[in-house]
């Protein structure tokens, strides 16, 4: 452990952003883990008054630090590379003795990306690129993790709880990665063997995690219980005492799956996905947190404005009904050479309807959408 005075690294602290180092007291006892954030000048001053130190073990700037200081136009590429990294890891999990370490290293940049720009994180879930069915299992795991960690934050859970939710989401289906990818393309009914593999996958996933060195009971219980329901109708054991974390993963899993296309079904629109979840589970605060976090018009949603223009929601607005939209097609159906930013809170530019993504024939890179929307 290499301890250096926190005051010497004060300029590296960005309020509300993940720390690129751990913070310890003079005896080396951890006060704030790397990846946590300092929220205010007052909190920083308290740590300085305590004589806090920075743990510079591993010295080079980590992924959280790089992402916290990346340019807005770099974030889309960082999302792509982070998704690919997790996909490779989940496919090779059984063959990696260092799986838990590798998982932490793969999850860290995605958690940092969620913290850096939650709107862009939601965009990954809602507007899924063509060809992602081939990587359905890993992409869906990340999407579930995004939704779960954002809902956990809205519920005022701790950062450690958010990390636990993300890790559990990434590994909930680790025993059936290939089967999930196959089912995304399968047009025939699920076979008896496949159905048995589905029902047993929580237990098998836990066994894989234990063999890979995972011994955290909260993590393991969430994976084991993520298909259980409080009324005892779930699987694999039909238990009723389901942990809060498992309930969060279960609902995030169901919700984000609604945005994904399968060979036998089209994805639901964001407003339809929110309504379908609300109808069956409206009294649950976890469900309410998920729906409020995404809203009816989340980033990535294709919409028609009252002006007749077509565009893509890029950022959530001050209210659930007033997001920022990047317009790509004018009221005459003509593609714009230069996309326009619209604040739907302004008269004449409110949202008239949610549209299928195919309604817009224009392709624009995500980094351009971010640039036209502003922020990031």
Mind explaining what this structure looks like?
By secondary structure, the chain is α+β, with helices and mostly antiparallel strands. The protein has three domains: 3-60; 70-294, Hypothetical protein af1432; 302-373, no CATH class. It has 14 helices and nine strands. The strands form two sheets. It has a five-stranded antiparallel β-sheet, covered by helices on one side. A four-stranded antiparallel β-sheet has the order 1-4-2-3, with no helix packed on it. Strand 2 and strand 3 form a beta hairpin. Helix 6 (136-154) packs across helix 13 (285-294). It starts with a strand and ends with a helix. The relative contact order is 0.10.
Quick synopsis:
This protein is an alpha+beta fold.
Secondary-structure topology with pairs:
Blueprint: E1 3-5, E2 22-24, E3 30-32, H1 41-49, E4 53-55, H2 63-68, H3 75-91, H4 99-116, H5 118-126, H6 136-154, H7 159-171, H8 177-185, H9 192-211, H10 217-225, H11 244-257, H12 270-281, H13 285-294, E5 302-305, E6 310-315, E7 324-329, E8 335-343, E9 351-354, H14 366-373
Antiparallel strand pairs: 1-4, 2-3, 2-4, 5-6, 5-9, 6-7, 7-8
| Beta content | 5-15%
CATH fold assignment of the largest domain: Hypothetical protein af1432
Describe the biggest sheet? 5 strands, antiparallel
Treating each run of at least 4 consecutive H or I residues as one helix, how many helices? Answer: 14
What separation lies between the terminal Cα atoms?
34 Å
Order of helices and strands: EEEHEHHHHHHHHHHHHEEEEEH
Helicity range: 40-55%
* Strands, count: 9
Mean pLDDT: 88
Number of separate structural domains: 3
Name of the CATH superfamily of the largest domain: Hypothetical protein af1432
What overall geometry do the principal axes of the alpha carbons give? globular
Task: Give the neighbour order of strands across the main sheet.
Answer: 8-7-6-5-9
CATH architecture of the largest domain: Orthogonal Bundle
Q: Name the structural class.
A: alpha+beta
Radius of gyration: 22 Å
Task: Output the CATH class name of the largest domain.
Answer: Mainly Alpha
- Any low-confidence stretches, pLDDT <50, length ≥5? none
């Amino acid at each position: 452990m290499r301890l250096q005075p926190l005051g010497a690294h004060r300029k590296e602290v960005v309020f509300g952003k993940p720390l690129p180092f751990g913070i310890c007291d003079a005896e080396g006892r951890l006060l704030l883990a790397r990846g946590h954030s300092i929220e205010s000048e007052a909190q920083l001053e308290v740590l300085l008054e305590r004589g806090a130190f920075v743990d510079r073990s591993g010295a080079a700037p980590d992924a959280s630090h790089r992402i916290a200081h990346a340019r807005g136009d770099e974030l889309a590429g960082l999302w792509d590379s982070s998704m690919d990294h997790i996909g490779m890891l989940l496919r090779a999990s059984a063959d990696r003795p260092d799986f838990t370490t590798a998982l932490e290293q793969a999850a860290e940049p995605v958690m940092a990306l969620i913290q850096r720009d939650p709107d862009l994180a939601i965009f990954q879930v809602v507007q899924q690129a063509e060809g992602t069915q081939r990587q359905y299992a890993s992409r869906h795991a990340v999407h579930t993790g995004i939704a779960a960690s954002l809902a956990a934050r809205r519920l005022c859970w701790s950062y450690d709880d958010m990390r636990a939710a993300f890790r559990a989401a990434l590994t909930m289906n680790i025993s059936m990665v290939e089967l999930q990818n196959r089912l995304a393309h399968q047009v025939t009914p699920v076979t008896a063997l496949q159905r048995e593999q589905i029902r047993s996958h929580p237990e098998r996933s836990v066994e894989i995690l234990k063999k890979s060195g995972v011994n955290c009971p909260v993590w393991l219980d969430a994976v084991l219980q993520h298909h259980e329901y409080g009324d005892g109708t779930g699987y694999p054991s039909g238990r009723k005492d389901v942990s809060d974390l498992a309930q969060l993963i279960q609902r995030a899993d169901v919700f984000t799956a609604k945005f994904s296309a399968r060979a036998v079904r089209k994805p639901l629109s964001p407003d339809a996905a929110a309504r379908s979840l609300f109808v069956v589970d409206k009294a649950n605060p976890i469900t309410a947190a998920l729906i409020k976090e995404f809203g009816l018009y989340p980033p990535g949603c294709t919409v028609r404005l009252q002006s007749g223009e077509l565009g893509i929601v890029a950022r959530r607005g001050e209210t659930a009904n007033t997001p920022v939209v990047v317009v790509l097609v004018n009221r005459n159906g003509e593609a714009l050479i230069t996309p326009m930013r619209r604040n739907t809170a302004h008269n004449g530019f409110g949202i008239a309807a949610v549209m299928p993504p195919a309604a817009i024939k224009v392709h624009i890179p995500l980094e351009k959408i971010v640039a036209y929307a502003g922020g990031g």
